[in-house]
Design goal:
CATH class of the largest domain in chain B: Alpha Beta
Shape of chain B: globular
Distance between the termini of chain A: 76 Å
Largest interface: A-B, 30 and 41 residues
Strand content of chain B: 15-25%
EC number (chain A): 1.1.99.14
Cofactor (chain A): [4Fe-4S] cluster
Strand order of the largest sheet of chain B: 15-12-14-13-17-18-16
Number of strands of chain B: 18
CATH topology of the largest domain in chain B: Alpha-Beta Plaits
Number of helices of chain A: 25
Structural class of chain B: alpha+beta
Oligomer: heterodimer
Number of helices of chain B: 15
Bound molecules: flavin-adenine dinucleotide, iron/sulfur cluster
Strand content of chain A: 5-15%
Radius of gyration of chain B: 22 Å
Keywords (chain A): 4Fe-4S, Electron transport, Iron, Iron-sulfur, Metal-binding, Repeat, Transport
Number of domains of chain A: 4
Helix content of chain B: 25-40%
Structural class of chain A: alpha/beta
Number of domains of chain B: 4
Pfam families (chain A): CCG, Fer4_8
GO molecular function (chain A): 4 iron, 4 sulfur cluster binding; glycolate dehydrogenase activity; metal ion binding
Radius of gyration of chain A: 23 Å
CATH architecture of the largest domain in chain B: 2-Layer Sandwich
Number of strands of chain A: 9
Largest sheet of chain A: 5 strands, mixed
């Protein structure tokens, strides 16, 4: 068979898969009003209808209806989509674009020969790395070795680093310092709430707390106070968060304890499966979903807390992911109802009434995590928390809801668009000149760090995760 | 001449980055917001200047290739559907605000500027551009001008036409004309500006516009009047106008619309109400306060169960945005939403609403009715499913009856969405045979080869070949 014939066969197979797996009603629900266009990052950058949500839906529908084959252009357009789902909350018709995208990508992935680069990245990410906690720890360990041994400095100093492809080169600049393997392996399973011994001094017109009694410094705080907790919550640790961003996970749990929550961190939990799902590897995603539902369902908790918008949004979609498996429907639904972001749980538990937040005076802005905002519908809670910190002058970032270009492994596969988006983002950041950019998802955090590096602003600003920032503010607030 | 020869010539004029013929690009420029309409163009071209538009038009005129100008493709009349194939011309590269003239209170813009950008840009300077079609966050000014679009503020401030002072347009022969100017008065010959406004891309390609601005009103107040039944809401509209009050906005939503909009927007609309009116007034504080008091009193007299005032500008804005989402929100119920645009004299609005409901019942259809009640411009929207042929047929019959009723009441078949391909068969009902003749004469004089948006406005009875 000629190459063209092979391609043709592949395209016909993909088209058939479209017809089998795309939701026809969802395709029909798009009435083509175009209200989603101004929310779409790839449309904003290209101004091309083909790179808009309305255009992508029209392409999917044309393939589904047999009006065109899923040729290279169509596939490239699906790849260019960030999956940020900014098109969903703005769609008055309620089109669930994210589901259509997932179905379409699944149809492509199952029937397509991938390029070598893509194959390598995918295999590494989906089969070997993320589903496997031990591997994640090992890789993180290697990065730590690289950072600690002085190899990083050597590589940067000698220019050997230039040998890496740009995507990788950029990545290694911005990775956080990784903690030791010992800490990664021994994670706490049960943590009790702490009761801050605070005295309210109304006379000063301001509440003051004495957190002396709280054993915040102890590595894994196991304060056993007699009073009952405000909530009993489970913590969804996340594979990337529980290795590369372990300190952020610790901060999250500490904050929950300070808010009066008992925290359970089940060790049987797995990776959320988001990276698989968004790239069309649906079978892998379903397996992980089942493992997680099992890990959390008997814990009798009020909420399952996440601190990564990307994971949270995938977790709240488990009922959709498992919709064709009736024996899982109820269990998935019960699981989904409990998923909440850390910012929401803190506010619900009265964190701001219990803990004084204070930091050296600084300008701060917030970059939304797309999935936290568009899928978990959480955008106010993080801002409310930030505005409550004494010393923080909060400035809203223009286009804060527009994707920064991180989008899972998007920045590795679609470097050009990812760079355009982060540069666009940094132009808006420059207009504010904050000392701190706060984010609510590890991918966004790395991308914002990359943005700062690309703009040469390392001396002027930092990017941090909300949980780390809040803990710092709580610890500083205790002293004040 | 073959498509590929036209393509070569266009590439020579614009460069290959701006001339597309991939299946993908042709497909995504084959539709607009009109349900059930789709037709593939041969080429998609993206000019960057008036001169490039001229070059394109010349090539197309010589080769008799149809040209369809396209803004953001949000029109509802098949206006940008390339029904006779040819070239789609997009204006995403011509999207600059050219000049704000604060002495003459004018704004010069390229056709691809987004309406909302214009509104925000001038409001930051305490100036006001009133036309605000519900699609303004994505519609282009070129599209607004070519459809003569209305909006929520049309009742008091008029429509797009009332804010266009001058135009630069490329005619079918490739010549450029400049009409009007930064002038408050101008009677030099025929009013070509007004001829081009609302011409739906059939007489010329607009490449620049001079817009009229007015000072930004000092204050604004918003109320939501809630009714048990539609009739009382419609009567309130007539009563307010009969009392010589012209509010900025008087928007109507029936119960079915209230429900879908609330389901999307969560702004606290009363989902058990029969109808609501969203009423706004702007101007000097004393005037606004006085008018709002009178409006509240009239609504209550006409049977409103409550008249609630928006507590803040955020709240008012949320209500306006929710109203703007009405049409798209209807698609939450059924996949195909076919909306109409019949307009009657304001005094007949109650009668029209009643007729719409009777016709809907007669044909056993689901409907959401909303619209610019103060303008007598309603959007009865049938909820259906293009896959259900029998029901689609009943929808068509129902619309014919609605059009007939509107005309009987002294109204028109379209208030603001244009004729396009959708309403071409009905144009004669409104303007008569002599009206059609005049319009055809104008079209033939300006575009003898019929290259500019062919298949729109005029209905060509096709021979039925079996
Ligand atoms: C949800 C929704 C709400 C709407 N609400 C309103 C409303 O409140 N009021 C209202 O009036 N309309 C409304 N519309 C209709 C539509 O949005 C308007 O007609 C709008 O002006 C179209 O702008 P556009 O940029 O999308 O133009 P397009 O749809 O791209 O084009 C419209 C027409 O203009 C022509 N055209 C475009 N640019 C040029 C140019 N530069 N030169 C010559 N011809 C050109 C096209 O050929 C076509 O005939 C609504 C539509 C939707 C989907
Ligand atoms: S907003 Fe929704 S209905 Fe409108 S074009 Fe986008 S996806 Fe389609
Ligand atoms: S998911 Fe994001 S990038 Fe993709 S179409 Fe929607 S808004 Fe655009």
């Amino acid at each position: 068979m000629t190459r063209e014939a092979v391609k043709e066969k592949e395209r016909t197979a993909i088209q058939k898969a479209f017809q089998e797996s795309l939701d026809e009603d969802e395709l029909m629900n798009c009435m083509r009003c175009g209200f989603c266009l101004p929310a779409c990052p790839t449309y904003l950058e290209t101004k091309s209808e083909a790179a808009s949500p309305r255009g992508r839906i029209a392409l999917m529908k044309a393939v589904y209806d047999g009006k065109m084959l899923p040729d290279d252009d169509v596939q490239a357009q699906l790849d260019l989509c960030l999956g940020c789902r900014a098109c969903e909350p703005v769609c008055p018709s309620g089109v669930k674009y994210g589901h259509l995208l997932e179905q379409a990508r699944g149809a492509v992935t199952r029937n397509k020969k991938q390029s070598l680069k893509e194959k390598a990245v995918r295999r590494l990410a989906f089969k070997d790395l993320f589903p496997n906690k031990k591997r994640m720890r090992q890789v993180s360990g290697l990065i730590r070795l690289y950072q600690k041994s002085g190899l990083q400095k050597l590589a940067e100093g000698t220019g050997a680093i230039k040998l890496l492809p740009e995507g990788m080169r950029n990545m290694q600049h911005i990775l956080p310092p990784v903690v030791s393997a010992r800490l990664m392996k021994h994670r706490p399973e049960q943590l009790k709430h702490v009761v801050p011994h605070y005295q309210v001094s109304v006379s000063k017109g301001q509440r003051q707390y004495d957190l002396q009694a709280a054993t915040v410094e102890q590595e894994h705080m196991a304060s056993t106070q007699a009073s009952s907790p405000v909530k009993r919550v489970a913590f969804f640790a996340g594979c990337l968060m529980d290795t590369m961003f372990l300190t952020t996970n610790d901060a999250t749990m500490k904050l929950l304890q300070m808010a009066g929550c008992d925290v359970v961190n089940p060790q049987t939990q797995a990776c959320c499966g988001a990276l698989h799902g968004h790239s069309g590897e649906l079978a892998g995603a379903r397996d992980l979903a089942k493992r997680n539902i099992q890990a959390f369902e008997d814990l009798q908790v009020d909420a399952i807390v996440t601190n990564a918008g990307g994971c949270g949004a995938f977790l709240v979609d488990y009922d959709h992911l498992l919709k064709d498996e009736p024996e899982w429907a109820e269990r998935a639904k019960a699981f989904v109802e409990k998923i909440k972001d850390i910012s929401v749980v803190l506010l619900e538990s009265g964190f701001l009434d219990k803990v004084q937040l204070s930091l050296p005076s600084q300008k701060v802005t917030f970059q939304d995590s797309c999935h936290l905002r568009n899928v978990m519908k959480t955008s106010e809670a993080p801002r409310t928390l930030l505005k409550a910190i004494e010393g923080v002058e909060y400035h809203e970032l223009k286009e804060a809801g527009v994707c920064c270009g991180s989008a899972g492994i998007y920045n590795l596969l679609q470097e050009e668009m990812a760079n355009q988006l982060i540069d666009r983002k940094m132009r808006h950041v420059q207009a504010i000149q904050p000392q701190t950019i706060v984010t609510a998802n590890p991918g966004c955090l790395l991308q914002m760090k990359l943005g700062i590096t690309r703009a040469g602003l390392e001396d002027q600003m930092q990017a941090v995760h909300l949980a780390d920032f809040l803990l710092e503010a709580a610890e500083a607030g205790r002293g004040s | 001449m073959s498509v590929s020869a036209v393509k070569e010539r266009l590439i020579a004029a614009l460069g290959s980055d701006y001339v597309h013929d991939s299946h993908e690009m042709r497909l995504v420029y084959s539709y607009d917001a009109t349900p059930g309409m789709q037709a593939m163009p041969d080429l998609v071209v993206m000019p960057g200047s008036t001169e490039e538009v001229q070059a394109i038009v010349r090539i197309c005129n010589e080769t008799k290739t149809p040209i369809v100008a396209r803004g953001s493709g949000t029109n509802l009349s098949g206006g940008t559907c390339p029904v006779e194939a040819g070239v789609v011309l997009t204006f995403q590269r011509m999207n600059q605000i050219v000049e704000l003239d604060e002495e003459n209170l004018t704004l010069t813009v390229q056709p691809g500027v987004i309406t909302q950008e214009i509104i925000e840009y001038v409001e930051a300077k305490e100036l006001f551009y009133p036309p605000d079609p519900s699609s303004m966050k994505i519609s282009t000014i070129g599209g607004n001008i070519s459809e003569n679009s209305g909006g929520l503020r049309g009742l008091k401030y008029g429509v797009t036409r009332d804010y266009v002072l001058g135009l630069t347009a490329v005619l079918a022969n490739g010549e450029v004309i400049k009409t009007g100017g930064k002038l408050a008065k101008d009677v030099a010959g025929y009013d070509l500006t007004r001829l081009l406004v609302g011409s739906e891309g059939t007489l010329g390609i607009i490449t620049e516009a001079i817009l009229k601005l007015i000072p930004l009103p000092e204050t604004k107040q918003t109320v939501l009047a809630i009714y048990e039944d539609i009739d009382k809401a419609a009567q309130s509209v007539s009563a307010i106008i009969a009392n010589k009050i012209i509010p900025t906005t008087m928007e109507f939503l029936d119960q079915a619309t209230i429900k879908v909009v609330e389901d999307y927007a969560h702004v606290g609309l009363p989902t058990d109400a029969g109808a609501v009116l969203l009423i706004e007034q702007d101007g000097a504080p004393e005037v606004v306060a006085r008018d709002m008091e009178a409006i509240t009193k009239l609504c209550t007299e006409m049977g409103a169960t409550s008249v609630k005032r928006a507590g803040s500008e955020e709240e008012a804005n949320a209500l306006r945005s929710a109203r703007r989402a009405a049409l798209s929100a209807c698609a939450r119920l059924k996949p195909t939403t076919i909306l109409e645009d019949a307009t009657v004299p304001r005094s007949k609005i109650a009668e029209m609403v009643r007729a719409i409901n009777e016709i809907t019942a007669k044909y056993q259809l689901d409907i959401c009715t909303f619209g610019h009640a103060g303008d007598g411009n309603l959007h009865p929207t049938f909820l259906t499913d293009a896959r259900n042929k029998a029901e689609m047929h009943r929808v068509e019959q129902a619309f014919e009856e609605i059009f007939a009723k509107a005309i009987e009441l002294g109204g028109t078949i379209t208030g603001e969405h244009g004729v396009g391909a959708m309403k071409a068969p009905y144009l004669e009902w409104k303007i008569g045979e002599s009206g059609i003749q005049v319009m055809r004469a104008i079209k033939t004089a300006l575009d003898p080869n019929n290259i500019l948006n062919p298949g729109k406005l005029f209905f060509e009875k096709k021979e039925v070949v079996s």
